[in-house]
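Summary for the steering committee. One of the milestones for this cycle was to obtain a three-dimensional model of the protein with citrulline bound, which we needed before selecting residues for the alanine scan. The sequence and ligand used are listed below.
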Amino acid sequence: MRHALVRGVSSAIGRCELTHREREPIDLRRAEAEHGQYVAALTDLGCRVHELPADPNLPDSVFVEDTAVIVGDAVVITRPGAASRRPEVESVRTFLSHHLEILRMAPPASLDGGDVLRVGRTLYVGASGRTNAEGIAQLRALVAPRGYHVSPVAVTGCLHLKSAVTEVADGVLLANRRHIDVRAFAQRDWIDVDLREPNAANGLRVGGAVLFPAAYPRTAERLRALGIPVRTVDVSELAKAEGAVTCCSLIWDGIAP
Ligand code: CIR
């Protein structure tokens, strides 16, 4: 059984963290509707979706990906790089402790799950504004005994590693290579985003398809032309909070229920 954890959109999302976007008003109802469509897509793609209640005190908490890194039957609970986001981890840890073994990070580590791209047994980890060297070192020590290798990647000009690169088929990376040091990714196959869609590198591989923002039709067409099934969702309101499709869920394979 494939599980997905999501959290409802906070009524405070208008006060979210922003790094590479100008603040624009966010329509909460539209954001909630988009989130509902996202959850429906995850369900269609075979996930059993668990939804934590929206929290009016945690503006960015819909972006659950940043709070945890799942490695097999264990989960590393992160220490997010933005102080405002650190209280998000507690409820995620409590929920996931019923499904996965909990591994913890400690200060001065900081790491956002959006900086961790798993390809097979390799975890590529973005050295970004949110993830520091201590975070990468602690992650490496936690996952090494489980057979995962950590490979750091320099990230510039975008929020997270997965803002710039995600896996869209086995070993095949969709990327805007201008934001990452590609030397970390020797031996990988690349699909480049359409350059008119520089933020189109974030796709979520789930259930044999890639969940993908409807805002980037040219890049979606590139994927389809290569035989990769694409399911689009409108996440344009959530994008105003600098989120995309990977950030709104944590997905793992477990036994029922
Ligand atoms: C933040 O700056 O932390 C949020 N406004 C956006 C986080 C998006 N997370 C992700 O892509 N993994």
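Key point for the committee: The two ends are 8 Å apart (CA to CA).
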